[in-house]
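Agenda item 2: iron/sulfur cluster complex prediction
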Amino acid sequence: MNNRWISDVLKQTYGQKIYKLSLQSGCSCPNRDGTIGVGGCSFCSEGGSGDFAARVAPISEQIAEARLRVDKKMPSSLSDSDKKYIAYFQSFTNTYGDTDMLKKLFTEAINRPEIVILSIGTRPDCISDEMLDILSSLNSIKPVWIELGLQTIHEVTATRINRCYTLSCFEETYHRLKNAGLTVITHVILGLPGETHEDMYATVRYLSTLDPTLDGIKLQLLHILKNTRLYEEYIESPFHIMSLEEYTEVLINCIKLLPEETVIHRLTGDAPKALLVEPKWSANKKVVLNTIVKRLRDEL
Ligand code: SF4
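Presented output:
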């Protein structure tokens, strides 16, 4: 069984391709509202790092709207009752809000027959014991994925990008989530300002030694987007931007460092073209993916 890539894992588990529905919980982020930080992580856009998500509305309406967009990509042979989705709460910090409201929202989403997985993006400093109990009980209905945006293990970079939590906070939450039986996926950004290739490999090496093993990883190219602090920093003092060839090489070396059991969920990332400043080459998603996939075939 090929269990390296999330698309293969989902196909093997559910017998078909599973599509993501980007949904909104209405939560903000403590790193943006002044609770623990102001202005947010330097790379984070106004949309809270989820610029393709639906507007905040009742969950049934959000799902219906997201399905209208996603269903266009599905084979016409698939009947409505056979369509399966991941309910994906990506933007902002989706465990940072009223727990009763979030419990109701997530429960409603996970109980929909067309939803097979609930995926929740959040920060490791925003999962209270009460929230952990809620997530754990939802996980007994259907799989719950918790996506933690670590980005880097290096405190110097974490300070530079204004992440506002420590690596030990990530590690503690990781173990709490794993002990509660949840699936944990970690986001890593490749190409953060000031980081060398070796710094990026050190982050991936650290994640590869976590015990229990990390369930999944999203390897993401750093995007500089308009109206972000990172953009201001870049304009004031430009830093190195990786070429497609360089990114592909770093990416492949990162994948080689990961244990076979860690499923790869993302190889690059999507940025809204209207906001993308650098790397310009990343706007051509087809060329990017073809280049990466060809190198992957040659090297793995
Ligand atoms: S934690 Fe997430 S939502 Fe909050 S500022 Fe950072 S990237 Fe944006």
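Discussion summary: The longest helix spans residues 285-299.
Owner for follow-up: CH.
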